[in-house]
Every structure is written in C-alpha cells, then in structure tokens.
C-alpha cells in the first residue's frame, strides 16, 4: 500500500507520516510547495502523479480567528481544494481520509455529539470544514472515504495550547484560563495510529476521534503544568474575559460510539496522552 499524506509540516501530518513509515507503509508526505491548496489543479496533479492507494488529507487552513477576515481563502483551501483532491482520489480509486472538526457542531448544551447529529458551525473555519465534508461526499460516489472529526489537537511538530501554556508557566506564578469551554484533547501520536488502522481497512464512514475523557481548557492547562512539576496557579475564568474574533463552541463533547461500531480502538485517556506528550517534548529538549 502507498499512502499520500498532505500537510506533512503540520502537527498531525508529521505524526501520520512517522507512524505509517514506522509500520513499513510506503508513504509520501506532501509539503505546501508540492500540493498548494490554493492551486487545486497543482494539488490534483500531485495526487495523480503519486498514484497512492490512500490519501490522508491533514493540510488545512487552521487560523480560526483570521478566517473571519479571510472567508473566501479559508473556504477555497478547506472546501474547494478538498473537492478537487477527493475527485482525484475517486478517479484513481484511492481511499480518502478527510480530517474535520468539532466546530461543525453548534457547540451549545452539554450533550455528546453523535456523528449524525445536526451540524451548524458557529464560525467561518467550522463552516469551511463542514463544506469540505460535503465536498468529499459529493465527489466520491464510491463511498470510499473516512471523515474523522477531531478537536483540541496537540503534537510535537507545531504550535498548540499545551506548548503555549507551558511556555507561559515557566515565567508566571499565575495564569487565567477559560473553563466554560469543554471538550477532549487529541494527541496526534495517538490519532495517527488510528488513521493508519483506518486506511488499512474498508470500514468507511464518519467517525469522531479524540482522546478519552473530557475537560475544560483550564483543567487541561492545570494538568499539563502539574505533570511538568511547575507551580503556576491556574485560575478558571469565563470566556467572556477573553473575547476572540471567531466564536468558540462551549460544548465540544464528541461521542466515540462510531469507533466502537467500526471496530476501532478508542484513543487512550487524555491525561495519559499529556504524560506521553511531555516525555516526547523532554526528548527534544523542551
Ligand atoms: N489544531 C486543532 O486544534 C484542530 C482541531 C480540529 C480539527 N483540526 C484539523 O486537523 C487537521 C490537522 O491540523 P493541524 O493542527 O495538524 O494543523 P497545522 O499544524 O496548522 O498544519 C496545517 C498544515 O496545512 C498546511 N497548509 C496550510 N495552508 C496550506 C495551503 N494553502 N496549501 C498547502 N498546505 C497548506 C500547512 O503547511 P505549512 O506548514 O506550509 O503552513 C501545514 O502542513 C486539519 O485538517 C485541521 O483542520 C485541527
């Protein structure tokens, strides 16, 4: 099997390539220069020239706040180029894994969202990722695709919330962090193993995949700080204290029943994922 991974320079793409190669799978990791999503025809040509058996599409426009001012660019990258890549996959008979987000849901209430619950994104980025999901469905009549919704991503290769918090905690005695947005972190090293299992299977469909357990951002910050052996105090605050350009969902709880139905393993608990992530950071001197 040959797998093409987009966004190899991002958090998830980097780990997906690492895991696939670790399993001995022939893997091509595409950079922005090789597959520019703002030039979909060039991206299509790269898929056609590579002729993979599967594409794991990790690249995306991920600047959630900037997207509010760059609606068209965000939509072109996350939806229209996804349509082109999905079309190329359909033509050459390749499977596609499209990475989506909890932001496709309205993010209100306290329920755990099921994969077939009604979607209604609360910001431009979420709308563009949902349009990407529709583009995959439209372009792949064969149904040979996986749509995998994830949230609160952290990995060794790139910026994320835990890295930011640990950086701040080094020099501050106290931090205020929002505690009225609740969800589950997703460790890219764990998710990459699941995605590798998926592309080896024919169990196509829509899945939710995050680490197990739920927390608020404040709880995630406090856990990372405590595990790191730092003493910085985390004070929970309302998100009204930190207005952002893009609205953030308060409820990012995703039901993982889809993984059970598909016969896939759920990811480990989020606290265990944080522990292993800190070991990984230490190994690179962070
Ligand atoms: N981060 C989260 O919390 C989160 C939550 C839910 C879902 N997701 C989804 O998970 C996936 C992986 O996220 P991530 O955190 O790994 O993202 P990331 O670290 O921000 O990486 C994004 C990747 O996309 C590439 N990219 C961006 N614009 C591009 C363009 N115009 N043409 C080609 N490549 C482009 C980047 O390349 P450069 O390095 O060259 O910029 C980078 O490799 C994405 O689909 C994202 O929407 C993320």
Task: Write up what this structure looks like.
The chain has one domain (2-160, 184-213, 252-268): Rossmann fold (3-Layer(aba) Sandwich), CATH 3.40.50. The chain is globular and about 55 Å long. Strand 3, helix 3 (71-92) and strand 4 (95-101) form a beta-alpha-beta unit. The mean pLDDT is 98. It starts with a strand and ends with a helix. The strands form five sheets. It has a six-stranded parallel beta sheet, with helices on both faces. Strands 6-9 form a two-stranded parallel ribbon. A two-stranded parallel ribbon has the order 7-13. It is 40% helix and 19% strand. The protein has nine helices and 14 strands. With 286 residues, it is an alpha/beta fold. It has helices spanning 11-22, 40-50, 71-92, 124-139, 161-169, 188-199, 217-227, 257-262, 270-283; strands at residues 2-6, 26-30, 54-57, 95-101, 145-150, 153-154, 174-178, 182-183, 186-187, 205-208, 211-212, 215-216, 233-237, 267-269. It binds NADP nicotinamide-adenine-dinucleotide phosphate. The site of NADP nicotinamide-adenine-dinucleotide phosphate has 25 residues, from helix 1 and strand 4.
By CATH, the architecture is named: 3-Layer(aba) Sandwich
* Bound heterogens, unique: NADP nicotinamide-adenine-dinucleotide phosphate
Number of helices: 9
Report the radius of gyration as a whole number of Å: 18 Å
- Binned, the helix content reads 25-40%
Please indicate the percent range of residues in DSSP E strands (runs of 2 or more).
15-25%
Cα shape? globular
Supply the helix-strand structural class: alpha/beta
- CATH topology (fold) name: Rossmann fold
CATH H level, superfamily name: NAD(P)-binding Rossmann-like Domain
Instruction: Report the mean per-residue pLDDT as an integer.
Output: 98
Oligomeric state of the chains?
single chain
């Amino acid at each position: 099997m040959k797998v093409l991974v987009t966004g190899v320079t991002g958090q998830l793409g980097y780990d997906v390539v690492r895991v696939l190669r670790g399993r001995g799978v022939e893997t091509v990791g595409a950079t922005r220069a090789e597959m520019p999503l703002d030039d979909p025809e060039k991206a299509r040509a790269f898929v056609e020239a590579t002729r993979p058996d599967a594409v794991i599409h990790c690249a995306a426009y991920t600047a959630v706040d900037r997207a509010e001012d760059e609606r068209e660019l965000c939509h072109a990258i996350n939806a229209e180029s996804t349509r082109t890549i999905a079309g190329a996959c359909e033509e050459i008979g390749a499977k596609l894994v499209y990475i989506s987000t909890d932001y496709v849901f309205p993010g209100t209430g306290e329920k755990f969202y099921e994969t077939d619950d009604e979607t209604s994104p609360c910001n431009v980025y979420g709308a563009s990722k949902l349009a990407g999901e529709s583009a995959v469905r439209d372009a792949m009549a064969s149904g040979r695709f996986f749509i995998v919704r994830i949230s609160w991503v952290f990995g060794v290769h790139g910026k994320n919330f835990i890295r930011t918090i640990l950086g701040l905690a080094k020099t501050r005695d106290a931090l205020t962090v929002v505690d009225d947005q609740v969800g589950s972190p997703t460790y890219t090293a764990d998710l990459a193993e699941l995605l590798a299992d998926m592309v080896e299977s024919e169990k196509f469909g829509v899945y939710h995949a995050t680490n197990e357990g739920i927390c608020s951002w404040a709880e995630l910050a406090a856990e990372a700080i405590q595990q790191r052996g730092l003493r910085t105090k985390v004070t929970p605050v309302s998100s009204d204290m930190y207005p952002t350009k893009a609205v953030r969902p308060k409820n990012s709880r995703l039901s993982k029943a889809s993984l059970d139905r598909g016969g896939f393993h759920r990811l480990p608990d989020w606290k265990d994922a944080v522990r292993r992530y800190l070991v990984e950071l230490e190994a690179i001197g962070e």
